[in-house]
Write a structure and sequence with these properties.
The chain is mostly helical. The chain contains 9 helices and no strands.
Length: 193
């Protein structure tokens, strides 16, 4: 085996757990998630010459997986509709008083340099943890809409939800992720951006 092949395989093995976690969240089926990750890695291996280095290798792999997941979600939507139990995030209600104003101490913190944070590798590790700690249904809606780029109407159709329910879940997910990032990323003084 030449060094380039070994290096690619090392990259695959390093990112594989994150690819699998992301696919499992969307598909709710470990075997199918593993199949999609395997399909992603095979497609990347077969088309490695098209990777031009304009993005990080991991970003390229996630883009391939994203397309495979969107195809699978669309295929499943055509075949059947799933029952979906919308998660309610009780902690959100505790952030506001009876007049819908922020409770003292619950206001979001001002973020320092959020535009440059996405460039920092550790930011994405914290972001992943934040997303995976959302309630399952909320995380699924958030990743379909915000990370996979599926439009709201298609998310609604795929999950059997109303648009109002999807927008409520997205709002709650954003608040939870923001709070998580404030504690796990923006609240950390030692991070140099």
């Amino acid at each position: 085996m030449n060094a380039a092949v070994i290096n690619i395989e090392e990259h695959f093995e390093r990112v594989r757990p994150r690819l699998f976690a992301f696919a499992r969240l969307q598909l709710e089926d470990e075997a199918l998630a593993e199949d999609k990750v395997q399909d992603t890695l095979l497609a990347a291996y077969e088309s490695i010459e098209r990777f031009n280095g304009q993005s990080k290798f991991e970003t390229w792999l996630f883009a391939i997986l994203k397309n495979k997941l969107i195809d699978e979600i669309r295929r499943r939507t055509r075949e059947f509709t799933t029952d979906f139990d919308a998660d309610q995030v009780a902690e959100i209600d505790e952030m506001f008083d009876e007049r819908s104003h922020w409770v003292s101490g619950q206001q979001p913190q001002k973020w320092v340099q959020p535009e440059s944070s996405y460039l920092h590798e550790q930011f994405w590790q914290v972001f992943d943890v934040c997303v995976f700690h959302l309630p399952k249904g909320t995380a699924r809606v958030f990743t379909m809409r915000e990370l996979l780029g599926i439009d709201t109407e298609e998310v609604c159709d795929s999950l059997g939800l109303s648009q109002q329910n999807v927008w409520t879940m997205l709002h709650r997910a954003r608040l939870k992720i923001r709070g998580c990032l404030e504690r796990g990323w923006y609240g950390r003084e030692e991070i140099e951006l």
